[in-house]
Amino acid sequence: MPRSYANGPLAELLPVTQQAPDRAAAPVPSTDAPDRVRLKLDPGADRSEILRVLRDPTLNERLWPALPELHWISRPAYAKPGATPLLRSDDARQDVVVATHHYGAGRVLYIGTDQTWRWRQKVADRVHAVFWAQALRWGTGHRLTGPNRLKAALDRRQVQPGEDVEILARPRDADGKLAGRVPVVAEFVHAGHAQKVPLQEVQDGSGLYRGMLRNLPPGVHTIKLSVGAPGFGDVTHELKVVARETTGQEGVELARDSARLATMAKVGGGQARDLLEAEALFSQLAGQGKETTVEDSYELWCSYPVILLLTALLVAEWLYRKRLGLP
Predict the structure, then answer these.
(1) Which of 72, 167, 205, 325 is the most exposed place for a label (fewest CB within 10 A)?
(2) pTM of the model
């Protein structure tokens, strides 16, 4: 990241700053920090969908420090109040390398390095491609939909049970103007119990209201948004979210689900083999071959090579007879 960004027009947009919040936050000067560095998960980033490369939380946390070193990161970098740091440098400075925060009606993802391609070493796209795909999915998650009087969006339409869902809403009055300082409520009912969440107005003039539904139980839920202000009596909007366990990776990322393939092959009486086991599979198939006799008829005069051969023999015989003076 160019250092001028920290003091230019993009400074407010970024979720990080180059100014340390206090002296204790910078135990090592950035000029003395090592050039090469590994990353680690921030303690509060274990549930981020951007970094959920492995399904097991413990293995996913151990994955990031095990990835190849990055040869450059932007230093110094400290998280702003309200920002969510995701990855930090695994050294004494613990500079923020990946972070997110909200800005107006949108969201900002900060990546303070141009070295993520190094994550492809020895594992190809298992980490690099998944990270960028999930980052793009996160960035395009908030799309306000619905009637003009009350547009709303969820940050995700599918979560795992126990996770949280963020809600955005933008109400407008009868004249189409942004409605400020009105009570906006999101409600969903599960097993006879209703959860109501009041949305808080974002103080940036964008007309947005933001709230969080906590600890969603398993199931398909309908979230109903309403505005408790005069003139909004019949203005509502409904959104759906699915909370279910992800039993496999098919449909989530472009990678095979080996366990499911093995189950399908077993049911069908076949085998599921890795590409590296192809030679052994071919040898096994060759040993199971059966000899088959195939009979077919073929007309000799339908073969151009045979006709050419007979014509050449006749011409040679005629030339030989002429040479000997025979009729």
Answers:
(1) 325
(2) 0.60
